[in-house]
Specification:
Length: about 190
């Protein structure tokens, strides 16, 4: 029951450490494990990075084996060397819900938000995926740093950071536990 939660937590920890080490904290402001209330209930965002280049919404996946999927598939497939297959929610669809909920909560335009999926672990992405689906540290940081168009003023960055921190400060721990448990029940197979 707890193995997927632990693996997810490990992937999130790796991403958090990477961001701290490789992104200038004066330009990139990181928020981790943000729980938002949306129209369809709560949604948990692994990482939000706010910069003048936009707001990056990062979904992390700790996986092994081969990963198959497309942008439009409802689920993707993880295939292990033993040929065992596990299906999981398409992270692009999952992160779309995250970006839409964040857009609504912050009152920010959609074109100022970048969706990014980061895979960790001993996995290989076996199908052609869009450039915002990456594997590991180098590809994650490269994707973020390649965004060079200034989308937000310094004041707007400060306001967004304050809004996100306020959301984090006002989210009870019990609500986060309930959210994790409801996801486990919904997606366990």
């Amino acid at each position: 029951m707890f193995e997927p939660l632990v693996k997810g937590w490990i992937g999130e920890l790796k991403t958090k450490a990477t961001q701290k080490l490789l992104l200038d904290s004066k330009q990139y402001h990181s928020f981790n494990n943000v729980l938002l209330q949306g129209e369809k209930g709560t949604t948990q965002i692994d990482h939000i990075i706010v910069s003048k280049y936009g707001v990056f919404v990062v979904e992390t996946k700790e996986r092994s084996g081969w990963i198959f999927g497309s942008e439009t598939d409802r689920e993707w497939t993880q295939v292990f060397p033993t040929k065992k297959k596990v299906r999981f929610q398409n992270p692009l669809r999952q992160n779309y819900l995250h970006t839409e909920t964040l857009k609504d909560c912050l009152g920010i335009e959609r074109n100022k938000i970048h969706s990014l999926i980061v895979f960790w672990g001993d996995c290989e992405l076996k199908t052609q995926l869009p450039p915002n689906v990456v594997k590991g540290i180098v590809e994650e940081i490269t994707y973020i740093k390649n965004k060079k168009q200034i989308l937000l003023t310094d004041d707007h960055v400060d306001r967004l950071c304050t809004q996100i921190q306020t959301i984090k400060n006002n989210t009870p721990i019990l609500q986060g536990i309930r959210h994790a448990y409801s996801l486990h029940k919904k997606y366990q197979k």
